[in-house]
């Protein structure tokens, strides 16, 4: 699958862009030319050689704040996705195999989660658990987990009714064996797609939460926080929100693009796609059965 | 004198009108535009009024493409690259879409396999036919309904009024096919193309539909093109037959002539299959006097006593299997036949624990399996005493697991053999099903249908089972592959493996079994030696089944009327 993603131009593009974002998340704070927390006298300055993206209302360098804020923003969305994966996908697969009671309970729980209003719930829980990034992300993760639950359950359900699973049962396979050998590989692409999508969603949510001041205390820099402060001074720097917006939009786009690419290259159709591309490049593709004539045995009278 | 001449002239004119060509294909080539290859090459034939032309060939031979070319509905990537198609004086290839709309339905029409997918599931079937008549004929609703009811009666649906108001899901496959035929002939077409219309149907229902086609031909003067992969189906009603292979006509001629004196090796193979592994083997043989039955001393492998299975839904309780009692001995091969829903698959699934009997007792190799817990079942299955082969290998083989891993799975689950022992075992079974070792690294999607089914058989064999249960193992295969599977089964028999062969087709069962069990509506109605079942069927249903089974030597072993009579008796009895 990984080789397949790299072979498509869209895949290459999204992977490259996301690697840049990851590098930003790791080295961003170190790269910041100024201290993101210390204000100067240059308040609301336009971009210049000294301050590439200008300064904010306290005279802090915007570029430094964006770089320093990337760690929290990216880490937050990863956290969301991982929590959602565990809270959603695993019960989703098990709901097919662990019997009616478990199935019913988890399904109703998921219905409830879907019905809850997203941001309001997040605000309520952070009020309860304390206003910190991990708490906020936990809430968001749980809130988006129904997507994983549904996707994993749907995939597992179709496979559990297939004849090859029945054939494995007839050879004495246990549930663990079946999930490991026959179910997992087929659910993985669906989960990978949802994961990439959720990272995108998580990013937007982290940004909007920090925009609202939930999860992060004001002086700490985040992309959403920078955006919020820029929006307050549109009269002075009308172009300023573009920097963070473009960054957020591109990152979300890259995640969604990656999700699309994963969908394209996985499964039967994906294999066919890759074989076609290989043929186009003149490489020798794997021989298919179409080229092997059936060999009848003898000529019955 | 003059009167006599005029008379004679009139008769000749009538004969000529009878034989007037309605469709003529001349050297038609169909090209796949992507590969640039001609997939159908130089097909020519003439269909005369009131006649039936049959096209036989395995899947991929180009028979459906030819029909689609005639109907002007070739798939996007294909085009007619040579030759002419003349339909009632129109050059089909130069027709505008508008002219096609006028011609289709009124001049030429078609019925395909899988009738369910051609009907709108959310619309009553009567309304669907009436809609066509209304838009094409411009009649009132009332008239359209009247005409539809006539048509439904015409295709011998028992209660047209009832069927008119039913949804597609409420009808059986055979009834759906009749509805589609009624829709096809609703605008009095001259030509009807029947493409694999009976392929998915039970043998008895298949005979009914073929009878209906022959009847419509006589009453309405229809000209038919009957397409099938089964030579016997075509033999039933066709005047002329074309044998297609890889896009070329390899043999053609009057049906009787082709069947009696086939010239091409491929046709001989098709006919040979029926002689080796079909009813012919028994029908051609002189009826033997029933031999005194020797006491069978072979040890009993499976003993089923009074097994009942019922499916409960919230509203009803359906008894799928009633009081089934039988034994299967070591090395014995037994056939289980019956129509769809007769309980034959339920019986098999009860034996392997995929359904739980509501009553009765089953023991396999001395172990009573009826009260097994899930864990006991797992342990029992790991021993691999009893194995199962599904109908459709494409669905029963995991598409994302290589052939090698698929074959190794049962042995890995047993966990008793080393890697090299497992490899040896797989090689041995692969040789037994006559497959090359280089297939091991492939995925099921890369194999042909016949190869896949042989892999499925090999998987069932790796644990060295004592009993092999095969659920319709050859129904999805074409002739050459069917023969191969049946040959493999016969070699297994010779090695002492017990077989239980489930099929709706007496022909394929007869070739490899010594005893046949007939199921009808959930009950075992007859158990006898295969030879006896074929030549001296006892139960009414068995008689109908044997009489319906298409054979290539005799055009139906009993005629249409006796079949009809038997069917009515059977209905009355149950």
From TrEMBL, chain A:
SUPFAM superfamilies per the UniProt record, alphabetical: MetI-like (SSF161098)
Record flagged with keyword Transmembrane: yes
UniProt cross-references to InterPro entries, sorted A to Z: BP-dependent_transpt_permease (IPR050366), MetI-like (IPR000515), MetI-like_sf (IPR035906)
Chain ranges passing through the membrane: 12-32, 72-97, 109-129, 135-152, 187-216, 236-259
Sorted UniProt keywords: Cell membrane, Membrane, Transmembrane, Transmembrane helix, Transport
Protein name per the record: Peptide/nickel transport system permease protein
Pfam families in alphabetical order: BPD_transp_1
Membrane topology: Multi-pass membrane protein
GO cellular component, one term: plasma membrane
GO biological process: transmembrane transport
Subcellular localization: Cell membrane
Annotated segments matching region Disordered: 277-301
Assigned protein family: Belongs to the binding-protein-dependent transport system permease family.
The ABC transmembrane type-1 domain, residue ranges: 74-259
UniProtKB/TrEMBL annotation, chain B:
Any one biological process term the GO annotation gives: peptide transport
Start and end residues of each ABC transporter domain: 23-271, 302-546
Pfam families to which the protein is assigned, alphabetical: ABC_tran, oligo_HPY
InterPro entries: AAA+_ATPase, ABC_Ni/Peptide_Import, ABC_transporter-like_ATP-bd, ABC_transporter-like_CS, Oligopep_ABC_C, P-loop_NTPase
Record membrane topology: Peripheral membrane protein
Keywords from the named record: ATP-binding, Cell inner membrane, Cell membrane, Membrane, Nucleotide-binding, Translocase, Transport
GO molecular function, one term: ATP hydrolysis activity
Single GO cellular component term: plasma membrane
Compartments where located: Cell inner membrane
Family membership: Belongs to the ABC transporter superfamily.
NCBIfam families per record: PRK10419.1, PRK11308.1
Protein name: Peptide/nickel transport system ATP-binding protein
């Amino acid at each position: 699958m990984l080789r397949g993603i790299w072979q498509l131009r869209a895949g290459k593009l999204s992977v490259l862009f996301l690697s840049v974002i990851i590098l930003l998340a790791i080295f961003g704070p170190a790269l910041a030319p100024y201290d993101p927390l210390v204000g100067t006298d240059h308040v609301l300055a336009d971009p210049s050689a000294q301050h590439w993206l200008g300064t904010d209302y306290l005279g802090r360098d915007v570029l430094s704040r964006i770089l320093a804020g990337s760690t929290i923003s990216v880490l937050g969305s990863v956290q969301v996705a991982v929590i959602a994966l565990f809270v959603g996908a695993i019960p989703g697969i098990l709901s097919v195999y662990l019997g009616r009671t478990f199935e019913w309970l988890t399904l109703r729980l998921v219905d409830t989660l879907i019905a809850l209003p997203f941001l309001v719930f997040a605000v309520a829980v952070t009020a309860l658990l304390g206003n910190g990034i991990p708490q906020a992300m936990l809430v968001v993760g749980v809130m988006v987990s129904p997507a994983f639950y549904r996707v994993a359950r749907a995939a597992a359900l179709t496979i559990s009714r297939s004849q090859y699973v029945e054939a494995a049962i007839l050879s004495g396979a246990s549930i663990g064996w079946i999930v490991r050998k026959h179910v997992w590989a087929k659910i993985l692409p669906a989960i990978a797609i949802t994961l990439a999508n959720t990272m995108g969603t998580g990013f937007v949510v982290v940004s909007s939460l920090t925009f609202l001041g939930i999860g992060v205390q004001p002086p700490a820099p985040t992309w959403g926080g920078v955006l919020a402060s820029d929006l307050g001074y549109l009269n002075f720097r009308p172009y300023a929100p573009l920097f963070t917006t473009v960054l957020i939009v591109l990152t979300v786009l890259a995640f969604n693009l990656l999700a699309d690419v994963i969908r394209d290259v996985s499964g039967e159709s994906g294999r066919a796609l890759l074989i076609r591309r290989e043929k186009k490049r003149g490489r020798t593709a794997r021989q298919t059965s179409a080229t092997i004539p059936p060999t009848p045995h003898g000529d019955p009278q | 004198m003059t009167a006599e001449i005029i008379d004679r002239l009139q008769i000749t004119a009538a004969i000529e009108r009878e034989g007037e060509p309605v469709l003529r294909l001349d050297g038609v080539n169909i090209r796949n535009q992507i590969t640039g290859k001609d997939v159908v090459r130089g097909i020519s034939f003439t269909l005369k009024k009131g006649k039936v032309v049959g096209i036989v060939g395995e899947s991929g031979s180009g028979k459906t493409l030819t029909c689609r070319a005639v109907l002007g509905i070739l798939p996007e990537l294909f085009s007619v690259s040579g030759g002419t198609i003349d339909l009632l004086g129109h050059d089909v290839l130069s027709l505008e879409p508008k002219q096609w709309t006028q011609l289709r339905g009124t001049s030429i029409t078609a019925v395909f396999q899988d009738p369910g997918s051609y009907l709108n599931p959310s619309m009553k079937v009567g309304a669907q036919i009436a809609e066509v008549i209304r838009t094409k004929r411009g009649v009132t609703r009332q008239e359209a309904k009247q005409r539809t009811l006539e048509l439904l009666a015409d295709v011998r649906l028992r209660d047209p009024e009832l069927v008119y108001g039913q949804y597609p899901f409420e009808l059986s496959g055979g009834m759906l096919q009749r509805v589609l035929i009624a829709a096809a002939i609703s605008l009095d077409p001259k030509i009807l193309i029947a493409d694999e219309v009976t392929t998915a149907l039970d043998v008895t229902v298949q005979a009914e539909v073929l009878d209906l086609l022959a009847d419509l031909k006589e009453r309405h003067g229809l000209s038919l093109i009957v397409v099938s992969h089964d030579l016997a189906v075509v033999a039933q009603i066709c005047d002329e037959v074309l044998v297609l292979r890889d896009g070329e006509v390899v043999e053609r001629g009057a049906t009787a002539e082709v069947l009696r004196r086939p010239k091409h090796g491929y046709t001989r193979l098709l006919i040979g299959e029926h002689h080796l592994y079909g009813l012919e083997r028994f029908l051609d043989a002189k009826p033997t006097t029933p031999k005194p039955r020797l006491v069978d001393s072979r040890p009993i492998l499976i003993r089923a006593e009074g097994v009942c299975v019922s499916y409960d839904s919230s509203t009803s309780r359906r008894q799928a299997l009633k009081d089934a009692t039988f034994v299967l001995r070591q090395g014995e091969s037994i056939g289980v036949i019956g129509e769809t829903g007769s309980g034959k698959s339920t019986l098999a699934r009860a034996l392997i624990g995929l359904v739980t009997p509501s009553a009765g007792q089953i023991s396999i190799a001395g172990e009573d399996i009826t009260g097994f817990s899930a864990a006991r079942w797992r342990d029992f299955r790991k021993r691999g005493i009893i194995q199962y082969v599904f109908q459709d290998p494409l669905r029963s083989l995991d598409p994302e697991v290589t052939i090698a891993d698929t074959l190794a799975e049962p042995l890995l689950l047993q966990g008793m053999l080393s890697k090299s022992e497992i490899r040896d075992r797989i090689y041995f079974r692969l040789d037994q099903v006559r497959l090359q070792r280089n297939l091991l690294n492939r995925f099921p999607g890369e194999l042909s249908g016949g190869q896949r089914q042989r892999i499925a058989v090999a998987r069932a064999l790796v644990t060295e089972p004592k009993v092999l249960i095969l659920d319709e193992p050859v129904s999805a295969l074409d002739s050459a592959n069917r023969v191969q599977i049946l040959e493999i089964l016969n070699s297994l028999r010779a090695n002492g493996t017990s077989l239980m062969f489930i099929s709706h087709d007496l022909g394929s069962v007869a070739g490899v079994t010594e005893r046949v069990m007939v199921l009808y509506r959930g009950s075992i109605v007859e158990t006898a030696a295969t030879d006896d079942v074929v030549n001296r069927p006892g139960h009414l249903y068995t008689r109908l089944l044997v009489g319906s089974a298409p054979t290539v030597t005799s055009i139906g072993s009993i005629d249409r009327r006796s079949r009809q009579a038997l069917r009515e008796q059977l209905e009355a009895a149950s």
